[in-house]
Design a protein that fits this description.
Chain lengths: 168, 416
């Protein structure tokens, strides 16, 4: 079976219902849609195990922070790849920063382990069920999650680096 | 005066130690020794720390710690205009920086929707394949060093110097190249660069054949590397392996063939695969890939198309300097680009290239500003290094060193 955006989306919606699979777009040739925290684990398991789809390679995942979106401040992006069909797929889950809990994918993909630790380290996303959720690249006693947008790159209290001409 | 010692409270550190204790099995078993390998150890070729639990010489468990040269590239990139991010990328896999540079450029070009002329694509292919050769050359010759054969390393290092001479002629730098620009190459290949590439193509096959002759059928080397650090194809896929390490297990996934970029579909080459996924297979796959890269360079060198070496994209590609002095329009574009005042369109892009170690991906989210809203690097080293524990368990300490070398984990890419 040739995988196209239409028939993959059709199959997923048939399985999980229209209320759980929303906002399908195609920004760069890779179909991107949103789902919710209740569905994501089942969905990735289904994509991996389905005999027709075989979307069974977790290419990457990363957190994204949108401070302006109320109750959708954090986003987790999963990008999957079917090596059999050479078909890529991107899934996003938005959730509030006050409750940054996501289900872990470590039981489905071994590679999710460090990727989730990275997302925890930089965005403070907690993965329920992760076997060893500690910081990975930053020091252990760091008290904040540095990729969140409220932390500017440079120390804003410094006065020796003011550049009034170009604003940076 | 007596000095007072203060007890420093480090909650995070205690937490870390607790986790470590949980991870290390049988910590009360007196037969086991805890050995700290790294972070700065001459045999690890980079800053890797592994706390090993040893039973005699056999590794029972290992806990890797990474992040020693973490430089927060993803965070820095959120404050920089697109063209200023290129120098960050070549500090990731510094053994093959041009691949990183050009992979990043191609991702931004995909976001901007720029078409690149054939000549620029071919020049990119030549430079990327040279980078792949220098990457594999380092990995395989260091594998020789770690198993006791220093000669090959010194011998092929001269060829890496020659590759760096080509880089120098093309872009002015040798290690952290910052090669090319968004929209093509910074300048055309000079006659000297073409001459150097031609000379390299003539000389290198002999050198590489000799290097292969020294190790490939060497009894000691084979005994030393067969069945060392083996991983099955299923586990490798689950761990997200890509590149030579995945191909050594027998899976023929190569981004250059599956999702061709930069005219890779114009060239004839094969994907070498292994079968067992052990250190020896990884060595063979990399060796064979060097020959394939040579084939690609030869084809691109012979069929180098005429035409421009950069895209006609004045908003993003710097005008020639002479024009800037004479032409008002060029001056304005020059100023806007250099000051980073050119906005990128709103969009979301993932582009991946076959890096020295596997699928090197760039995921860019642009909100229409001068910098990316979010830039995520899919760094192959970071993804497959987590399998290291599983690969060295049950083996000996010296095998762990060989496994690390044959995986070609580059600290810069691991920690970004």
């Amino acid at each position: 079976m040739e995988l196209t955006n239409e028939n993959v989306l059709g199959k997923i919606i048939e399985q999980f219902g229209e209320e759980n699979i929303t906002d399908a777009v195609n920004p760069d040739g890779i179909m991107t849609f949103q789902t919710n925290r209740q569905t994501i684990h089942e969905l990735i398991k289904y994509l991996r195990d389905d005999k027709e789809l075989q979307i069974s390679f977790l290419t990457t995942m990363c957190g994204i922070h949108y401070p302006e979106q109320k109750d959708k401040e954090l986003c987790m992006m999963y990008q999957l790849h079917s090596l059999r069909h050479n078909y890529r797929l991107r899934i996003k889950v938005y959730f509030p920063i006050s409750d940054p809990v996501m289900p872990t994918m470590t039981d489905l993909y071994a590679t999710a382990n460090w990727m989730e630790r990275e997302a925890y380290d930089f965005f403070g996303i907690v993965f329920a069920g992760h076997p060893n959720l500690i910081r990975i690249l930053n020091v252990e006693d760091m008290e904040y999650h540095p990729m969140l947008k409220q932390y500017p790159l440079e120390d804003q209290t410094r006065e020796d680096k003011v550049n009034t001409f170009f604003g940076r | 005066m007596a000095t007072e010692t203060k007890k420093v409270e480090l909650d995070g550190l205690d937490q870390f130690r607790e986790n470590l204790d949980l991870k290390l099995q049988d910590k009360h078993n007196e037969n086991l020794t805890t050995l700290n390998l790294g972070p700065t150890h001459p045999a690890t070729h980079g800053i890797f720390q592994n706390i090993l639990q040893m039973n005699g010489e056999v590794i029972v468990d290992a806990v890797p710690t990474i992040g020693y040269i973490h430089r927060a590239f993803e965070k820095i990139a959120e404050r920089r205009p697109f063209y200023q991010i290129t120098p960050l990328t070549d500090r990731m896999n510094y053994c093959s920086s041009p691949i990183n540079n050009m992979g990043y450029h191609m991702s931004v070009e995909k976001l901007l929707g720029i078409e690149i002329p054939k000549r620029a694509q071919y020049i990119r292919v030549i430079m990327m394949e040279l980078a792949r050769i220098s990457d594999h050359l380092i990995c395989n010759s260091i594998l020789g060093v770690d198993s006791g054969a220093f000669t090959g390393f010194l011998y092929v290092m001269q060829e890496r110097e020659n590759i760096y001479d080509i880089y120098e002629e093309v872009c002015g730098a040798r290690l952290t190249t910052n090669m090319g620009r968004i929209g093509g190459m910074e300048r055309d290949l000079s006659p000297k660069a073409l001459y150097l590439i031609g000379e390299f193509l003539k000389r290198f096959p002999k050198v590489w054949a000799e290097f292969e002759k020294m190790l490939t059928r060497n009894r000691i080397f084979i005994d030393r590397t067969t069945d060392v650090g083996a991983i099955s194809a299923e586990r490798a896929l689950s761990y997200g392996f890509t590149g030579p390490n995945l191909r050594a297990t027998g899976v023929d996934y190569d981004v250059r063939v599956m999702n061709p970029y930069s005219s890779y579909d114009d060239f004839e080459f094969e994907i070498p695969v292994g079968s067992k996924g052990d250190t020896y297979d990884r060595f063979l796959v990399r060796n064979a890939e060097v020959w394939e890269s040579l084939k690609i360079i030869e084809q691109a060198y012979k069929n180098l198309p005429e035409g421009s070496y950069h895209a006609d994209a004045p908003h993003y590609y710097l005008p020639p300097k002479q024009e800037v002095y004479r032409n008002m329009e060029a001056l304005i574009y020059h100023f806007k680009i250099v000051m980073g005042e050119i906005d990128a369109p709103v969009g979301e892009v993932y582009h991946s290239v076959e890096g020295g170690n596997g699928e090197l991906g760039f995921y860019i989210i642009s909100d229409g500003g001068r910098t990316p809203y979010r830039l995520h690097f899919r760094r192959p080293c970071f993804i497959y290094y987590q399998a290291y524990t599983e690969m060295i368990k049950g083996g000996q300490l010296a095998d762990a060193i060989l496994t690390l070398s044959s995986l070609n984990v580059i600290a810069g890419e691991l920690d970004a």
